[in-house]
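In the previous chapter we treated chains in isolation. Here, by contrast, the input contains two separate entities that must be folded as one system, with a combined length of 343 residues.
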Amino acid sequence: MRLKDDSHYDFPVTDLHAAGDSSASIEAEPAESDDAKDNAAQSDAAQTPNSPTCSESSTEESVEPTDEQLVARVRDGDQSACEWVVRRYAPRMLSTARRMLNSEADALDAVQDAFLSAFRTIDSFEGRAQLGSWLYRIVVNAALMKLRRRRRRKERSIEDLLPTYSDNGTLSDHIQSWRLTHDETIETREMRQLVRNCIDELPELYRAVLLLRDIEELSTDEVADALELTPAGVRTRLHRARQALKSLLDEHMTELPA
Amino acid sequence: MNCCEFVELLVDFSEGQLSEDSLAKFESHRDACQHCAGYASKYLETIRLGRAACHRVSDETPSQQVPEQLVRRILDAHDSGEFLA
């Protein structure tokens, strides 16, 4: 495990290694600023009707506790503080897991795994990072572990999906355009699912790089740390993953010749 | 520049990391090669489609909120000490 900068990261190293998949660990910050995401998460929580202030367990709590207070209370074994943390951060964590996993059941499992891991290792959270950022990294890790353990059924060979060239380096790719525009594709639920299914067909490491770099929008260095690759290795795999995804989309979206 | 060299520059191009000289060669080849112009267009659209399709997944979930069952599952597991296993 390589920590880039201890002043920014409070990642619970041991729990992820104990989970049996050290190479899936991630220490990267999300592309969006900590403050923006934490504020958004707290705003979401404020609108949540099932906030613990309304629940049986904490009816006496009229003011929302701060993250710092919650961390201290979780450490003391306060179950209602755990509930506050779950309700405050689960929406954002579930969104992340859904984006990465293309499976509602797996996304729910990943979020559960992430919270249990976080509660187990709360003592390793030193407060130098935002609680939301720390939890974000944990759920990304949990999602990566899910991806690794998922039984692969229809993974395609990367080599079959890369472009081919003639002896003089000329591209042999066909030039038919896609039959749908971006907006037409993205506005149709069926087509959005098709795109996600194509991502699912990428070989595991290529899929992970593409998800972290293009979907979660982590930096190249952050993805390299997460997957224990060199930055150059990330760029190579990202390029191939995009090329392969393009080829998969070609199979579904290319206009038939007139 | 041939097509193979052009395609290998796409990842740098997509991130705005081509030098001025490389960008000029890249654009010159793209303007002259219909295959590469089409390939580059689809490559960039692939990035946008993947991002949009994954980010819209929450729109398709019956409930935007976190299922109460999940909250209970997490808290029950934590309360029972299952997380210590």
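Chain B touches chain A through 50 residues (CB under 8 Å). The mean pLDDT of chain B is 88. Compare these points with the single-chain example from earlier in the chapter.
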